[in-house]
Amino acid sequence: MTIEFNDSISIVLCGAAGQGIATVETLLTTALKKSGLHVFSTQEFMSRVRGGTNSTTIRVSANRVQSYCEKIDILVPFTKEAVSHVKNRLSPTSCILGDKQLFEKNPDAQSCIMVDVNYEAIAEEIGHRVYSNSVAVGVLAGILRTDRALIVELMANKFQSKGEKIVNNNIEAVKRGCDLADEIMASNKLPPIPSLTNQPSVGSELFLSGRDAVALGAIAGGCNYVLFYPMAPSTGVGAFLARNRLEFGIVSDQTEDEISAVNKAFGAWYAGARALVTTSGGGFALMTEGLSLAGVTEMPLVIHLGQRPGPATGMPTRTEQGDLELVLYSGHGDFPRVIYAPGTLKEAFSVTQHAFNIAAEYQVPVIILTDHYFINTSYNIPSLDHKDTKVEKHIIETKSGYKRYEFSEDGISPRGIPGRGTGFIRVDSHTHTQDSQITEDPIVRRKMVDKGFKKLELLKKIAIKPSILGDGNSKIVVISWGSTFHNVKDAVTELGKKGYSMVYLHFSQVYPIHESTFNYLENAKKIIMIENNATGQFAQQLYLEFGVKMTSKILKYTGYPFSIEELVSKLEKEL
Question: Which CATH number fits domain 207-381: 3.40.50.970, 3.40.640.10, 3.40.50.300, 3.90.245.10?
Answer without folding.
Answer: 3.40.50.970
